[in-house]
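For anyone still unconvinced, we reproduce a single protein record, the chain in one-letter code, the fold tokenised, and leave readers to judge:
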Amino acid sequence: MKKLINLANVEEANRFVNLANHFSGNIDLKVGSHILDAKSLLGVISMAVGKTGELFIMGGEEDPSALSDILAFCE
């Protein structure tokens, strides 16, 4: 699944990464030409805050609640 995401500030990035870490599947974030692990707070803060990126979600279908929490951040 591919969705657009825009994390406006560090606090929003922190909430997103915390939710992502509770998700059993893999989540990657592409910002420009960079692809990073969306479960990495340092990576998300340094590369994605204030920018629109593409979120790639793989697996985790057994956890629909966590998936819906993550998708709430998407545009």
